[in-house]
Amino acid sequence: MSLFKRHFMVAGTRQILFTDNKGWGQVYIHYWGSASGDTEWPGTAMTPAGNNDYNEPQYSFNIPTDVDGIVFNNGNGEQTADAYYESDITGWYPLDSKNDKGYYEVGNWKDGGGGTGTDGFYLVGYFDGEDYWGLDHPFVGGKVTVNFSTTSYAFIRDEAGNAWMTNGWAGEDAGSATLYSTDITGEKSDKLIAPAGSVTFTLINNGDGTFTLSNGNGGGVTPVDLSETRQIQFTNNDGWEAVFAYAYNDNGDLLGSWPGTQMTDMGDNGYGQHNFSADVPTNASYIIFNNGSGVYDGGQQTVDIPYDNEVTGWYLVEGTDENGKRLVGSWREGNDTVTVLFTNNKGWGSVNIHYWGGSSSSECPGVAMTLSGTNDYGEQQFSATIPAGTTGIVFNDGNGSQTANIDFSGQTGFYLTEQSYGKWNVGSWW
């Protein structure tokens, strides 16, 4: 960033900068402790040095390298508190806060963005329901204000794309969290929760590679325990090149921001298809499987699947919802049940399934099937879970239309073909 100027060295001095983010219009520097002598108040006028990336005036001065302390002021009553001089600090700026004497506290930055400064850092995260990685919310003087329409989640980045995030979720009323480099923690999903409304964030550079981010509510960090997890599976029966699992609940992302975590290939499932696994927190509300992007990015993803701790895994079935997201079936450990789909290609007003031959049987006309979306031809699809081991099924509308008896041997779904003796014949797919 142009904010981080190079030092121009002369014998016994070095150039420092001051950002006039309070609009003083004239800036003086008063210093003391140098063998060459102290300045007389208000000090020496600094030289205009252009504007920084936030269009704030900057001033420069070649200062003796052996000074002990400095104060910046406008020569007319406004000034900073005393600041200790450090030879590796590039520049200083006034914060919003003042000490008990009414003098501005100061922040600073070091060449290359290191040290104790916060200039050059930006607020990013999951804002108003969407991932946000832009540079529209820079910290100026350690602060930035953002308006949210709903509860959102924040962390920070620099212009080069490096990110700092939390080790655990912070509650909306927790107020603050320590941020760590993602290169240090390996965490990619943890952010500071911020309430809806106008929120002023404060960023403190702790000088040890970590930051403290506050959302204005005060308090400490309240991590959510994500240790309760269980393995889920996904059958990649459509040959995606990669498989990711994304999970969320009311607190936000649970497996990282979209597209989530890449699932582990478990190998062939015995049917020429590969199953993939991932550990998911048991407090998840919804899961989405995807190939690393989503339908809005030209990729593949499933519908938002209500998470059920009793379901072992999911697989793709024919059809999509109105947004082009793939429909799914599921199975449970021990194959106690199986999900069956029915394509309502004849426009029945409702669909029931009557089944028999397994651990239990239904009573005619059976159980109502659930509308789960539409297929690629705009036809409604219905789903139902029936006992594993079922040997026969009949679909009907509960009002006189029905299929012939169907020998069931694990087919994924069925659709109507032609009528014979007043009953519909069916086709099927696996």
Overview of this protein structure:
This protein has 430 residues and is mainly β. The chain has four domains: 13-109, Immunoglobulins (Immunoglobulin-like); 121-214, Sandwich (Immunoglobulin-like), CATH 2.60.40; 229-326, Sandwich (Immunoglobulin-like); 337-429, Immunoglobulin-like (Sandwich), CATH 2.60.40.10. It has one helix and 37 strands. The strands form seven sheets. Strands 10, 11, 12, 13, 14, 15, 16, 17 and 18 form a nine-stranded antiparallel β-sheet that branches. A five-stranded mixed β-sheet has the order 4-5-1-8-9, with no helix packed on it. β23 and β24 form a beta hairpin. The two termini are 57 Å apart. The model is unreliable at 1-11, 112-116, 184-188 and 218-227 (pLDDT under 50).
CATH C-level of the largest domain: Mainly Beta
Poorly predicted ranges (pLDDT <50, ≥5 residues)? 1-11, 112-116, 184-188, 218-227
Question: What's the pLDDT, averaged over the residues?
Answer: 80
What oligomeric state do the depicted chains represent? single chain
Number of helices: 1
The total beta strand count reads: 37
CATH topology group of the largest domain:
Immunoglobulin-like
Percentage of residues assigned to helices? under 10%
CATH A-level architecture of the largest domain: Sandwich
Count of folded domains: 4
Let me know the largest β-sheet.
9 strands, antiparallel
Alpha-beta classification: mainly beta
- Characterize the overall form: rod-shaped
DSSP strand (E) fraction?
over 45%
- The termini sit apart by 57 Å
